[in-house]
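Below is how a single chain appears once it has passed through the pipeline. First comes the sequence as given, then the structure the pipeline wrote out for it. We keep one example in the README because the format questions we get most often are answered faster by looking than by reading.
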Amino acid sequence: MKTALIVYSSNTGNTEKVAYAIQLGLEEAGVQVTIKKPQEAADVDYFSYDLVCVGTPAIQWHPTRQMDDFLKAKMAAYRKDGKIKPSAPKVVGKNVLVFVTYSGPHTGLDEATPAGKYLAQFFAHVGFNIVDEWYVLSEFCGNEENSTKGRMGDIRGKPTVEDLQKIKEDAKALASKI
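Resulting structure:
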């Protein structure tokens, strides 16, 4: 049976909704899923999973502090264990999905992309295959002006039930590729 780890950080619940939609899709495809927040995942070993899904909201083109601290600690541990090698040789069968929620009252997707690329690099350095990066438009919770007058238009209520269903179906399809 294929296995997956989902580690996510969520400030307002948007990224958490996406994480659980991914979990449902993977489980429907027969993948055994473990889901954790960064503060619960210090002892996990990425190498124990076929797929690692890592998600965060983009905050001024960066991941959350919790996610950043978690990834840096893992990187330090893997460096100490000798798992980071020159030229980052690929580790067969080890895959990563990066997902980032964003609202974009200022520049939209352009604010989220750097956070996703940053997350991916932690895994590329240990040789994992980055299977995809998903960027999910989400409501700017607690600020109607930023949810209605930003570059992305009226994003109240995002991700919607339909958005989450599509994420679930995309995760189900992804499972067949790992």
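The chain has one domain: 3-175.

See the next section for the split statistics.
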